[in-house]
Amino acid sequence: MPKETCLAAALAILVAFLPTQLLGGGFADLDRLRLQFEALANAHPARVGICAQGRVLPPICVNGEQRFSLRSAVKIVIAAAVMQAVDEQRMALDDRITIRREDLSVNIQPTADIVVEKGAFETTIGDLVRRAVVDNDNAAADVLIARLGGTSAIQAFLHKAGLQDIRIDRTERELQTEIDGLVWMPEFVFPERLEEARNHVSEAERNAAFEAYLRDPRDTATPRAMVAFLQRLATGTLVSAASTAYLLGVMEDTVNIPDGLRPGIPSDWTIGHRTGTSPTREGVNGVTNDVGILTTPWGDRIAVAVFVAESRADESERAALIAAAARAITSAYQ
């Protein structure tokens, strides 16, 4: 059956399973939601992981224990580690920091334009959190990682919080050059040097690097673990009340195109989230994901994580699947 027909069939099943039996707090039959998730995952020609959890919703997952690459969804975890450091008075949101050429990263990094124009950019920790999460700025993320003490410090934050199965191993510039078959070098802060190095990587080497990335457990999370992290954030049990409010506000300002979860929620709901997308090679997209927190009109929060890995579907189809998962969740609430 063509993939478009499969997805359409899954969406039809989703509608058929609209809620009829409500649980406390206005949530429908859990088995129905699980069946909707399974229909979506089975209809898509890819490896799909979906998980959701809320105040009256225990974790409902499909492929919840499988590992998926985080890509830019990692920026929410980095930001949470920063907020914990703020709570512990190891840094403050208004701390000044200067970014220079040697601090830059690769690919998406609007901060680089300012640094190239002015030679340096003085800003605050709070601004870098916003740039990393809202603007998907790789330079901002890497500077925050360095300020925290490296990826091991973020892993220690997760361990201290009792959160497992989320791995933060590399900076953005390390990961994103490695997937191209390169090893990060300081000269790559100059885009022309990076492009020159990329041009010297053979197709066979690029393909091998991409295949290795697909199997790599580093910088991955399970959907269940990501939802556990988001649920802790949503309930204010991960960082302080002030830090929770700040980070949720930043997440709600995020704009992503194509916007996976957001099209699946009603207009009177709110969402704070961060997408992640890997390169596509030989027609295979490594991963497309969207993780975040949905808030009902009456204030209930639902943590959601959707991962679509090793897919040959185009960008809009992957986004439609993620939106359909969000729609299944929101339709189950009254």
Largest β-sheet summary: 6 strands, antiparallel
Tally of individual helices:
13
Distance between the termini: 35 Å
Shape: globular
Poorly predicted ranges (pLDDT <50, ≥5 residues)?
8-24
Q: Output mean pLDDT.
A: 92
- Beta fraction of the residues? 15-25%
**Rg for CA atoms:** 20 Å
State the share of residues found in helices, binned by percent: 40-55%
Identify the CATH architecture of the domain at 3-66 and 215-331. 3-Layer(aba) Sandwich
Number of strands: 12
Secondary structural class? alpha+beta
Could you say what the CATH topology of the domain at 3-66 and 215-331 is called? Beta-lactamase
List the secondary-structure elements in sequence, H or E. Answer: HEEHEEEHEHEHHHHHHEHHEEEEH
What is the CATH class designation of the domain at 3-66 and 215-331?
A: Alpha Beta
What would CATH call the homologous superfamily of the domain at 3-66 and 215-331?
A: DD-peptidase/beta-lactamase superfamily
